[in-house]
Amino acid sequence: MRLSRYFLPVLKENPAEAQIVSHRLMLRAGMIKQQAAGIYSWLPLGFKVLKRIEQIVHEEQIRAGHIPLLMPTLQPADLWRESGRYDDYGQEMLRIKDRHDRDMLYGPTNEEMITDIFRAHVSSYKELPLTLYHIQWKFRDEVRPRFGVMRGREFYMKDGYSFDLTREDALHAYNRHMVSYLRTYERMGLTAIPMRAASGPIGGDNTHEFLVLAQTGESEVFYDAKVPELKLGDREVDYDDRDAVAAICDEFTTLYARTDETHDEAVFNEIPEERRCVGRGIEVGQIFYFGTKYSEAMGATVSTPDGTRVPVEMGSHGIGVSRLLGALIEANHDDKGIIWPEGVTPFHCGIVNLKQGDAATDSACNALYKALTEKGLEPLYDDREERAGAKFATMDLIGLPWRITVGPRGLGNGVVELTSRRSGESEEMSLEAAVARVAEIYANH
Ligand code: ATP
Ligand code: MG
């Protein structure tokens, strides 16, 4: 993309309404525009990152054997009357009447609808296990929408629903979700810690939240200092191997890590003092095993091998896709702007032309652009008639992890400059070497 033809409405001033750095930077970098409290338009740069995150979530869900579908945002109230949640949900639910005076709602979550789909089409244990998920907009009329996309009213969520015959099978689905989530966050360059959580209004006896450590997080968290060091890395996971999947879950959940809701001071105090950490975290996902709560209420049963019928065992598992943009920026920024991890960056690399209109620099930038594109990379070329300082400031603000700077002096010596946004370090090399280096960096992303 050439910046002169793109739509990147960056702000020079710090927006007064933004209380935390991620919200401020998303507004300044022209990623979002607020349309009403907690409701945003996703401008091109923000939309691109949202899609990158969504893509990673899809890939890891599909890898775990989970199946994508798409349910609507608007739902009939009658489904929620069956489960009893139409009255229970309270003011967070946005209720709407259609022209025929029928009660509708903008879905805050989809347990009822997915159970309705299940009962219409599945009746035998032979069709299990089954996990269906979608990535769809949700609406919750939060009392205090704030922090930009972190606590919106309209937000984008991946929600998956597992169906199994037995509790044991359902716990394997739970574990599969935990491991697939760990992989998902790691690919984004994030450390998200599974913490034992309280079950809340959805009900259920097994639940973990995934928290990204950040001073601006809304949850208070208590954990062993060794927990954030745990990594999946590039180990292969066989999602059908129950013991292997359970062993990974044990590895990540045995050491102490809890939110204030489940915190137990006495157990916490058994950790050696120098490892006891108290901090704050952003909830970027949650997994639940809740058994037959919805299947019983809504008559979703399956036949068993011995010919009887039982309510299906269920779990629901969510990732805050739009909240992740905020969490990623909280965890990756400096005083100049955002620093995107390679896994989610909107463009792979920036190209800065120090002397726009100069035949030699223009043609080198065009060659660079073409070579990067041919490697399957997406560069953002700042081809505006702007001072170098302004071009650098824009690149630093929007946070592309790599920048190639092309100027007449360097070209005279046959080199361009490759700069890392994270370390700030620059290295001179030939144009071809710069292309090869950037391609190599992204080979694993
Ligand atoms: P919270 O405790 O932050 O209100 P929740 O526990 O009610 O969230 P879940 O029902 O677990 O939310 O939804 C799954 C994920 O969706 C959460 O882990 C979070 O990342 C995201 N999420 C929930 N509410 C919002 C919101 N208002 N804005 C953006 N993301 C949200
Ligand atoms: Mg939650």
From TrEMBL:
InterPro entries noted in UniProt: aa-tRNA-synt_IIb, aa-tRNA-synth_II, aa-tRNA-synth_II/BPL/LPL, Anticodon-bd, Anticodon-bd_dom_sf, Pro-tRNA-ligase_IIa, Pro-tRNA_synthetase, Prolyl-tRNA_ligase_IIa_type2
EC number: 6.1.1.15
Major localization listed first in the record, in broad terms: cytoplasm
GO biological process: prolyl-tRNA aminoacylation
Gene Ontology CC terms, in alphabetical order: cytosol
Residue span, Aminoacyl-transfer RNA synthetases class-II family profile domain: 38-341
One Pfam match: HGTP_anticodon
GO molecular function: ATP binding; proline-tRNA ligase activity
PANTHER family: MITOCHONDRIAL RIBOSOME PROTEIN L39/PROLYL-TRNA LIGASE FAMILY MEMBER, PROLINE--TRNA LIGASE
Family: Belongs to the class-II aminoacyl-tRNA synthetase family. ProS type 2 subfamily.
Role noted for this protein: Catalyzes the attachment of proline to tRNA(Pro) in a two-step reaction: proline is first activated by ATP to form Pro-AMP and then transferred to the acceptor end of tRNA(Pro).
The protein's name in its UniProt record: Proline--tRNA ligase
Organism: Rhodobacter aestuarii
